[in-house]
C-alpha cells in the first residue's frame, strides 16, 4: 500500500473564529511507498488565501510563514490540482495526524467549487490509530514523538516539516495496522 502523509497550515487567529473562515496556506506532504519505508518524495507549496488574505500576527508567529510568502503564492485553485498531479493515479491512503487536514481539504474544495477527490475518502487518522496501537491518550505530534524517543526535525507548525515528522510516526504504526489486518482503510473522517 502507498501512503500520502499530509500536513496543512491554515489561516488562524489568537481569538477563535468560525472554522469555516480558515483557509489552507501551506500543503506539505510526503509519500511512503510502503508502511515501513521512509518517505521518498515530498510536496510543499504555499497557498494564497482569498477570504482573509492578510495573515494575523498570531498565524505568522505560530507557523513562521510570512505575509510576503503568501502574497507570492498561487491560489488553492492552482495548487490543489498540482498536489493531485503530484500524488498521481496509483492507489493510496491519505494519512494525517488527526481529522483536521482531511476536513480542511473538504472546506477549501467547497469554497473554490473544486470536485472532492474520492481517493481522499481513504483516510487514516494516524493520531487516533497511534493512540490505539500504543494504548495512550491521543496527543499532539510533538508530544508523541518525544514519548517514543524521536527528535522533532525542522520547524513545528510548518506543513512540510510536520509531514516529514508525522511520516516517522507513520512508520511505527502503519506496519502494525497492516500486520493485524486492521480495518484502517476507513472512509470516515474521524
Short structural summary:
38% of the residues lie in helices and 18% in strands.
Broad structural category: alpha/beta
Instruction: Please report the total strand number as a whole number.
Output: 6
Give me the side-by-side strand order of the main sheet: 4-3-2-1-5-6
Radius of gyration, rounded?
Answer: 16 Å
* Main beta sheet strand tally, sense and closure: 6 strands, mixed
Number of helices: 7
| H/E element order | EEEHHEHEHEHHH
- Strand composition percent: 15-25%
Quote the average pLDDT: 93
Q: How much helical structure, as a percent, in the residues?
A: 25-40%
Shape designation: globular
What is the subunit organization of this protein?
single chain
Low-confidence stretches: 184-190
End-to-end Cα distance: 21 Å
Helix and strand layout, with pairings?
Elements lengths: L2 E8 L13 E9 L8 E8 L8 H7 L3 H5 L2 E2 H12 L5 E4 L3 H12 L11 E3 H9 L6 H7 L11 H21 L11
Parallel strand pairs: 1-5, 3-4, 5-6
Antiparallel strand pairs: 1-2, 2-3
Helix pairs in contact: 5-7
Keywords:
single chain; 190 residues; alpha/beta; 6-stranded mixed beta sheet; disordered C terminus
Description of the structure:
Helix 5 packs across helix 7. The chain is globular. Helix 4 links the parallel strand 5 and strand 6. 38% of the residues lie in helices and 18% in strands. The protein has 7 helices and 6 strands. It is of the alpha/beta class and 190 residues long.
Amino acid at each position: 500500500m502507498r501512503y500520502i502523509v499530509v500536513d496543512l497550515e491554515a489561516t488562524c487567529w489568537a481569538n477563535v473564529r468560525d472554522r469555516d473562515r480558515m483557509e489552507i496556506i501551506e500543503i506539505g506532504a510526503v509519500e511512503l511507498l510502503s508502511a515501513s519505508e521512509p518517505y521518498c518524495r515530498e510536496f510543499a507549496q504555499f497557498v494564497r488565501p482569498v477570504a482573509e488574505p492578510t495573515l494575523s500576527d498570531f498565524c505568522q508567529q505560530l507557523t513562521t510563514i510570512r505575509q510576503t510568502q503568501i502574497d507570492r503564492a498561487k491560489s488553492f485553485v492552482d495548487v490543489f490540482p498540482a498536489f493531485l498531479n503530484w500524488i498521481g493515479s496509483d492507489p493510496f491512503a491519505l494519512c494525517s495526524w488527526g481529522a483536521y487536514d482531511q476536513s480542511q481539504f473538504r472546506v477549501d474544495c467547497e469554497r473554490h467549487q473544486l470536485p472532492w477527490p474520492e481517493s481522499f475518502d481513504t483516510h487514516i487518522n494516524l493520531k487516533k490509530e497511534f493512540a490505539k496501537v500504543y494504548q495512550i491518550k491521543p496527543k499532539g505530534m510533538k508530544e508523541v514523538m518525544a514519548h517514543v524517543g524521536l527528535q522533532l526535525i525542522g520547524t513545528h507548525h510548518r506543513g512540510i516539516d510536520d509531514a516529514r515528522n508525522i511520516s516517522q510516526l507513520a512508520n511505527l504504526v502503519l506496519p502494525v495496522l497492516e500486520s493485524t489486518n486492521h480495518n484502517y482503510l476507513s472512509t470516515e473522517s474521524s
